[in-house]
Amino acid sequence: xxxxxxxxxxxxxxxxxxxxxxxxxxxxxxxxxxxxxxxxxxxxxxxxxxxxxxxxxxxxxxxxxxxxxxxxxxxxxxxxxxxxxxxxxxxxxxxxxxxxxxxxxxxxxxxxxxxxxxxxxxxxxxxxxxxxxxxxxxxxxxxxxxxxxxxxxxxxxxxxxxxxxxxxxxxxxxxx
Length: 176
What we know:
The protein has nine helices and two strands; from the N terminus they run αααααααβααβ. A two-stranded parallel ribbon has the order 1-2. The chain is globular, with a radius of gyration of 16 Å. Helices cover 56% and strands 6% of the residues. By secondary structure, the protein is mostly helical.
């Protein structure tokens, strides 16, 4: 059964059908979704999807190695880019999270290995009777959020991380 949000807009349907809940192990995609989920804080996912392509262009295709090197000039450019969410804290978090992402890669070999280690490399599939039963966070997202925060990541609260884990297929919520 399909979630109702998936049919609210063509961009939402495409995201639902082609990305959400599908396992990803691509480092650039893992970083992209971390950025997008953080940018969503306080906004709708549709707003983010509408701006995604512009953000992709502004952020060097979500190349975290390049973003980790951004300086004040790059920050100012992002603050004046049409499709960016013009929030200083969020834009700063993109840059610092890119640096932290690389630190995690150095420690674990890949960010993928790090994030999937929380579930022993297995997706967490849960079936719900109703869409309203799906939580906004859980013990897993709380644990990962706490760990990411301890590593210096920003905009990685438990609700954001729950969305992130769904985006990359670690959490796969389904309706019966």
